[in-house]
Amino acid sequence: MPEEKTELWLVRHGETEWSLDGRHTSWTDIPLTDHGRQRAVELREFLAGKKFAAVFVSPRQRARETCEIAGYGDVAVIEDGLQEWNYGESEGKTTAQMRAIHGPNWSVWTDPIIGGESVEAVGERADEVIAKALAAAPQGGAVALFAHAHILRILAARWIGLPAVGGKLFGLGTGSVSVLGHERETRVISRWNRGFESE
User: 132: which residues sit within 8 A by CB, 6+ positions away?
Assistant: First the structure.
């Protein structure tokens, strides 16, 4: 079956001022830092010559900028489903700040997101993106998804049949590359969180 020949390459955008500070960043449209742009250059070197059946990118500038620097801006299709989780009232705040308001056990993964999306709703978006990615490669091949930490973590969880909240088990650094694929007919995580910090 063609799906068994399909890989999803997940590329998290490079560093921003807010990711550096640990602030929740969903729809706030902020650019990469200089370090984030350098990471995107390293992504371009790593992906040099890699052919994708399709490339999808979040509409947020940090993802689009990463995609462009990495060399795929001219073929990428904007995919609204790849927008980061809408964090509602926690947008722009750190976990520590939210815990000062809601208690020491607050987590975006387990507490209601006031004014934002539930983790299940993000999971539904992830399922739709997976379906679109598979449809874009009917004969198999690699599909690139340039997006954000939480949506990509949730997408990975859904790929292997976990509930959306299972994304909390997968750490994902800025400017990283991960690959979802198959072992025979079973969906697997082939590679995860390939970073460039120590290279």
Answer: 56, 79, 81
